[in-house]
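Study the following:
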Amino acid sequence: MTEAKAHQVSTNSFNENHAIYDQVRPNFIPEAVDCLTNNLGLHEGSKVMELASGTGKFTKAIKDNGYDLVTVEPSVGMIESFKKNFPDIPCVQGDSYKLPFDDNTFDAIIIAQAFHWFADDASMKELARVLKSGGKLGMIWNQEDLSDLPEDHWQVQVSKYILSFDGGVPQYRHMKWPLAIKGQSYVNPDYQDAYFKWQKKNNVEDIWPYWESRSYITALPKEKKAEVKAKVEELLKIHVKSKDIDQNNQITSNRYAHVVWTTKP
């Protein structure tokens, strides 16, 4: 049987784009962070692992809470940026299929913006192994919220175009990740969740770098990526209206944060 390992598109892409990822990906809003940490029952001294910590976009939100925190990340590029951002927080190279920790080690595991990459039975078994009995597993994602926008809105047009390239890789929006929780016996399959709508302001010129940081866009051949960039810039030129631009010359995108949590029996 082939040993399961981290998805190569994610690892290779994030090795390459970790610096831009750190610059352009949004932070996590306090309301969503508080929801997650409260429902995980975290307090000062809680032993917490953040898995697939990336450059530390979520770590930033919990680093001062007094947790006994260790992070794990498969991408050496991401680890490079993480250690620049948080030189005093342990970050070890590893993945969800072979965690370098003893059984029953952690009170909680947090996965931000990443569970869809390794949402399978092998990962769930390994996560449960290192959780204490009664330990908590929590996930959080930032996502585009197109639900209240007209079809000709710039965010709808750009998002739908870029998302047309994501069919070959695991993504949150494909909604296959819930099956990994519901179809196993290692943690309670009846997870709980909450949604938080929010908005982010950006300069127009920051929209392409944000989308370029997606793994499946980073992985495109140079010529194709240039074509995609040109198309995004064209869509922005067509669909960003004067009413969309505020006094600081910024445009607003609609987002939501999705928080998920469950428990090891």
About this structure: The beta strands are 47-51, 68-73, 91-93, 106-112, 131-144, 192-203, 250-263.
